[in-house]
Amino acid sequence: MRNLSLLTDMYELTMVGGYIVSGKQDQCANFDYFFRKVPDNGSYCITAGLEQLVDYITRIRFSQQDLNYLDGLKIFPEKVFRYLEDFRFTGDLYAIPEGTAVFPGEPIIRVTAPLPEAQFVESALLNIMNFQTLIATKASRVCIAAEGDPVIEFGLRRAHGPDAALWASRAAFIGGAQGTSNVLAGKVFGIPVRGTVAHSWVESFPSELESFRAYCSIYPGGCLLLVDTYDTLKSGVPHAIQVGKELRAEGRGDLTGIRLDSGDLAYLSKEARKLLDREGFEGTKIFASSDLDEWIIESIKNQGGRIDTWGVGTRLVTAFSTPALGGVYKLTGIEENGRMIPKIKKSDNPEKVTNPGKKKVVRFFDPSGMMRGDVMFLEEETLETRPIRGFHPAVPHVSKSYPSNFKRVELLKPVLKSGELVYQKPSLKEIQANTRQNMKELGPEFKRFTNPHIYHVSLSQKLIQTKQRLLKKVHAPEPQAVACRTGEGSPKD
Q: Full-prediction pTM beyond 0.90?
């Protein structure tokens, strides 16, 4: 893996340098990573990126070339370089496992570490987690629209560079895609790879029929033909059927499938299905690509389209409709005299007021196993068996009660303790299975694309009281200094 230690924003380093010079290098702090708004006006996100993040954090080392570069900037005192020479992450990192449904405002990752260390990892953490969570969420939505049909990630050529293409393949698999066209992703992550031919293959032969015969003679066990180069229904599908009959007559295989890559996919797939079935190719699958996303797939389904497998590229790996997840990383506590003191960020926008303190997240499930809401508690709180009341983070008089018979699961799991890995990394298939299970446990009202139901994320009574106390303290007016001029008397009380 490349040394990505300098993959950071400059202000992280200037703050680290400031902490060192100010003598704060041993002061512990707590930061939360969370997002405020779900992409595409949805209800949930699927978390992804933890594995790469842990690899990054545990490998942070400043090489001599890194230090020489920073020295050349003529910004940092010598004391900062002595600190960076021996930099290692020695803190704790808790995270909600990849493939879990997560919601606005709740910490997905909690970092507790000496202030310079916790601060430094911010930029890379946001870069890794925001992108991969965004793509995993998009893939999940696409898979919901496909209603169980296989989805293949096809986005390599439109991704924002090689790294984005590679990690998008992994995130898409976490979200539910069953394969990828990206061979490197197949090698690195073990994702099944898929692919046949492009229009250039068909055009390189004197005729479409000859191109089909040539391909199927080379790959008789995987004869999936691209049928829209010239005319889908008058040429492509009939020629595919002809080659399929020749394969059967020679005992060399069968027509595995056809691919539609342009035109009215709903209409063409229905007509192609009729042609295939009439000629005895009921088992031949229809594969579709062409700038697909969840809304287009949903529309084709609603029109009775007969597509069996979906190849989704550009609009998946770029999250075309909402190309960024606005995840943030905020300080929520600072150590003073051996105690973690809750901190809060105030804003005129209620959504941007942070939830203070070192927190845990508990998910409540009803007796049928469905998710009913998440509640944030301060870390030191003990969950009792009595009913739990959660309070709206911005509107404290709004609350929701969770009965004592609801199952309770703590979501944040220890990943790094004192800088050491304590987390058993799951396989990619296990992460995808976690996504699948989470989607079963999340009600359909939260998964619709238009006006989804809002999932409740609340604060415990102690946490909402802490938040209100800190806000009241912030709102308290500063004492006004009044100067008295000689002979003018004293100000009135």
A: yes
